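Page 37, continued from 36.
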């Protein structure tokens, strides 16, 4: 039996398969059956989204440059899409899986995603972007290892664990959607879960992780939650930070880490304490009432329960800001390519455009909305990417409803436009994006299709003079950034990935109610060297459903 036949058999059995095809980089094949099930993440039975009967869903575990094929069978009663948070999908925003890029998979149908983790390593995750499905689960981890010939700046750990932490509601996603559609906020989550479970530190839970004394383990920690920042710590142990969202970091040691919405960190933990049980603790930050969960780490052949005395989380966001400033890019380490990360001197590139985004929470016709520079995003019935590709964009959206400079009205009476929020970006421009948070909550933002340099976060309002405080040497290249209350954050990036890319709030409520936009990054050459053609299997909907397909891009 040849490799292809073996792989076809593996797909039929819903097994991940890794093969080489015609000398290409290896392929990873997955088949997912997405269903509802009843679980009790917080001790209360509720409807949860399962993938192959699992929550969290199966881990996608690959190597840099692998090709990933995921055949999704939607067995829910609602349309469905998945996004691959942090995977850059080079030249391939067709696979982004947001309502601005794709028509959703109808109930009872299937769709096959195909993408490459080109020139990437690191820790990421996937989740459903339709409706409020993320509040019901359907998420899972993605880990991308370095190729065999690329040196990694630490010894291979004994094991590699995914730790998906986040806050959780006991209300169903349909109940939560009704709240937002009626104009109300979601309120506070009811608890925290770790890999779908919520230990309470009473010693009654089965161990989630088992360690061998003297060995070192990698924990990939992602905040897949809905509203809150999470602090993570390991009882009696320190954590050596080695990677943030695809970048090797300077290997500082921490007793705890603030992981904001959408963020992923990799830490090394050495089992160097008395052999017994210990708790990994995750708790909400910046909330009046803190929720927490524990996961038990058991030493092999250990003797004794974990101490009920849990390590405390830090207080206040000043501590968190200082921790952010301690994160540094490892300039000498190689990431996905052999050359050192620090060989890219981003601080010496001239900025060609500055976009300042000011956030606002407002009432429109008595209903809560969130806006960027006076525009609250609404997904059109025809995905923006498809409308643009078919030459029907003017019938679906307008470019540049927001301006690069924006000052909110002094009387607080913001005039808000509800519409698709699409910014026309110039291919390969090096841009500066400023986030100003005038509210009282910590915000977190993700940019799809790119990584960026998180060069500064400071209290107050941004002015051009603040550039003097930027870290232009070793800021971490990543895809998410937090913005503290009454503060601003600055990122630098090159729009070098042609396609349509979502800039979004990682808060489920804010994202659903308008806190997002799309950057349209069009290559003037319309060449497959810059962007792939629309896949033959792409789903069509809206006004372009019956329009003849445009001529494909050529070399």
């Amino acid at each position: 039996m040849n490799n292809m036949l073996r792989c076809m058999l593996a797909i039929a059995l819903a097994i991940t398969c890794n093969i080489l095809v015609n000398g290409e980089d290896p392929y990873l094949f997955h088949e997912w059956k997405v269903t509802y099930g009843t679980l009790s993440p917080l001790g209360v039975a509720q409807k949860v989204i399962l993938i192959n009967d699992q929550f969290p869903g199966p881990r996608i575990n690959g190597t840099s440059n692998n090709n990933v094929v995921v055949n999704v069978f939607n067995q829910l009663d609602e349309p469905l899409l998945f996004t691959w948070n942090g995977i850059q999908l080079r030249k391939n925003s067709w696979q982004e899986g947001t309502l601005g890029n794709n028509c959703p998979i109808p109930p009872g149908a299937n769709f096959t995603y195909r993408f490459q983790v080109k020139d990437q390593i690191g820790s990421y995750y996937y989740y459903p972007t339709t409706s409020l499905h993320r509040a019901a689960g359907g998420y899972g981890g993605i880990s991308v290892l370095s190729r065999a010939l690329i040196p990694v700046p630490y010894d291979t750990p004994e094991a590699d664990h995914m730790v998906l932490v986040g806050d959780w509601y006991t209300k169903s996603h349909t109940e939560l959607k009704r709240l937002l559609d009626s104009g109300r906020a979601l309120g506070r989550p009811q608890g925290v879960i770790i890999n779908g479970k919520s230990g309470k530190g009473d010693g009654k839970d089965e161990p989630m992780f088992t360690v061998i004394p003297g060995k070192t383990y990698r924990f990939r920690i992602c905040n897949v939650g809905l509203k809150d920042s999470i602090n993570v710590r390991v009882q009696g142990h320190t954590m050596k930070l080695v990677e943030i969202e695809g970048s090797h970091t300077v290997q500082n040691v921490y007793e705890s880490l603030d992981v904001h919405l959408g963020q992923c960190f990799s830490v090394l933990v050495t089992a160097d304490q008395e052999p017994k049980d210990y708790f990994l603790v995750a708790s909400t930050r910046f909330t009046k009432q803190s929720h927490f969960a524990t996961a038990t780490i058991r030493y092999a052949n250990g003797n004794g329960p974990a101490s009920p005395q849990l390590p405390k989380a830090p207080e206040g966001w000043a501590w968190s800001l200082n921790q952010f400033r301690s994160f540094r890019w490892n300039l000498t380490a190689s990431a996905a390519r052999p050359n050192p990360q620090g060989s890219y001197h981003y601080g010496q590139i001239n900025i060609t455009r500055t976009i300042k985004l000011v956030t606002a929470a407002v009432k429109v016709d008595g209903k809560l909305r969130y806006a960027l520079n006076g525009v609250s995003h609404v997904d059109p019935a025809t995905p923006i990417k498809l409308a643009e590709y078919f030459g029907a964009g003017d019938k679906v959206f307008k470019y540049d409803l927001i301006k690069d400079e924006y000052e909110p009205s002094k009387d607080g009476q913001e005039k808000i436009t509800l519409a698709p929020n699409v910014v026309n970006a110039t291919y390969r421009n090096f841009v500066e994006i400023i986030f100003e948070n005038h509210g009282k909550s910590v915000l977190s933002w993700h940019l799809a299709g790119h990584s960026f340099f998180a060069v500064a976060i400071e209290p107050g309002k941004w002015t051009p003079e603040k550039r003097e405080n930027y870290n232009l040497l070793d800021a971490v290249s990543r895809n998410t950034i937090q913005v503290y209350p009454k503060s601003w954050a600055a990122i630098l990036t090159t729009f070098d990935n042609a396609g349509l890319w979502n800039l979004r709030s990682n808060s489920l409520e804010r994202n659903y109610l308008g806190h997002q936009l799309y950057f349209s990054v069009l290559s003037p050459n319309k060449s497959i060297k810059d962007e792939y053609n629309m896949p033959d299997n792409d789903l069509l909907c809206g006004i372009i459903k019956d329009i003849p397909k445009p001529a494909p891009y050529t070399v």
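The CA atoms of residues 101 and 431 lie 22 Å apart. Flag for discussion at group meeting. Confidence is low (pLDDT under 50) at residues 1-16.
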